[in-house]
């Protein structure tokens, strides 16, 4: 007989429900996601995206990334891999499951799996046989 309580898979699925996707990238990357409906403002009118331009400081990129990590309404952070490289220490220091941090390619910089810290961690958890 089945109880009314959700199973562990359902609980994990509900944990991410209602969460936002944050984006850190160049203008073309962020614009693409905004056109797809990703853009939101939190209750303090802070956006869930950062358009990184030539004059954007490294400190601003890292500060925004860390602020996204601490926001309760964000479930996934998409960051261009070339920018993740600039703040690699902050990306690798994040160990919680939520928000998930995913490195993505940008127009000018193709994706390099060897640089992706999340992929490296996943490879350490799974054996080659698990991936077949």
From TrEMBL:
Keywords: Hydrogen ion transport, Ion transport, Transport
Pfam families, per database record: ATP-synt_F
A GO biological-process term: proton transmembrane transport
Role noted for this protein: Subunit of the V1 complex of vacuolar(H+)-ATPase (V-ATPase), a multisubunit enzyme composed of a peripheral complex (V1) that hydrolyzes ATP and a membrane integral complex (V0) that translocates protons. V-ATPase is responsible for acidifying and maintaining the pH of intracellular compartments and in some cell types, is targeted to the plasma membrane, where it is responsible for acidifying the extracellular environment.
Family as reported in the entry's similarity comment: Belongs to the V-ATPase F subunit family.
Self-association state and partner proteins as the record states: V-ATPase is a heteromultimeric enzyme made up of two complexes: the ATP-hydrolytic V1 complex and the proton translocation V0 complex.
Protein name: V-type proton ATPase subunit F
Organism: Grus japonensis
Organismal lineage: Eukaryota, Metazoa, Chordata, Craniata, Vertebrata
């Amino acid at each position: 007989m089945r109880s009314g309580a959700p199973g562990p898979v359902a609980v994990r699925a509900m944990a991410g429900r209602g969460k936002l996707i944050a984006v850190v990238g160049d203008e073309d990357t962020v614009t693409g996601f905004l056109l797809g409906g990703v853009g939101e403002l939190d209750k303090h009118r802070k956006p869930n995206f950062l358009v990184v331009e030539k004059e954007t400081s490294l400190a601003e990129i890292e500060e925004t990334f860390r602020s996204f990590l601490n926001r309760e309404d964000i479930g996934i952070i998409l960051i261009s891999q070339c920018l993740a490289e600039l703040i690699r220490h902050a990306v690798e220091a994040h160990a919680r499951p939520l928000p998930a941090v995913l490195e993505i390619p940008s127009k000018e910089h193709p994706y390099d799996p060897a640089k992706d810290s999340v992929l490296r961690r996943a490879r350490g958890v799974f054996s080659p046989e698990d991936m077949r």
